[in-house]
Specification:
- The chain has 159 residues and is α+β, with helices and mostly antiparallel strands.
- The chain has helices at residues 4-11, 56-63, 77-82, 91-94; strands at 16-17, 19-25, 28-34, 37-42, 45-52, 66-71, 100-102, 109-111, 116-128, 131-143, 151-153, 156-158.
- The longest helix has 8 residues, at 4-11.
- It is globular.
- The mean pLDDT is 91.
- It holds the Pfam family Flavin_Reduct.
- Residues 11-159 form the Flavin reductase like domain.
Length: 159
């Protein structure tokens, strides 16, 4: 039998980029660090994120179909840590002086200094164990900076 600890330890050796997913919900901005982000389709352009089913971010994504993903750069390690909990209200307050702007298609915050931004609209939600896979059509993309990426491997942020 595979234990959760063994499974986590084995998959922690897989390096992945780090993103912050943001959603505008009413007057609040919600943000969460997400390492499970990938492209799904080129035509139409689609992406997928995986979020903890019991998280606040999962609830918000169920209510608010438009959201944004900022791909973080190596210099944004502290920012990733601020959003590492399961989705926090008032994301703008947690940016800690980091500039942001509203995406024109999603109204979600896009964090300045990231490598890229992807604005999305949810098309499909798939329960998958203790997570939910959220498949979305890409509404727009922007290349924000040319810099080193922030990655996560062996439970640590690296560049």
């Amino acid at each position: 039998m595979i234990t959760p600890q063994d499974f986590t330890a084995a998959l922690a050796s897989f390096a992945t980029g780090v993103t912050v997913v943001t959603v505008k919900e009413g007057r609040d901005d919600i943000g969460s660090t997400v390492t499970a982000f990938t492209s799904v389709s080129l035509d139409p352009p689609m992406v997928l994120i995986s979020v903890l089913a019991a998280s606040y971010m999962c609830e918000v994504l169920h209510r608010s179909p438009r959201w944004a993903v900022t791909v973080l750069s190596a210099g944004q390690r502290a920012l990733a840590g601020r959003f590492a909990a399961e989705g926090r209200p008032s994301a703008r307050l947690l940016l800690g002086g980091q500039d942001s702007h509203r995406g024109p298609r999603s109204e979600a915050l896009i964090i300045e200094g990231g490598l890229a931004a992807v604005e999305c609209e949810t098309r499909l939600r798939i329960p998958a164990g203790d997570h939910v896979l959220v498949v979305a059509e890409v509404l727009g993309v922007d290349y924000l900076e040319k810099a080193e990426p922030l990655i996560r491997v062996n439970r640590r942020y690296r560049s």
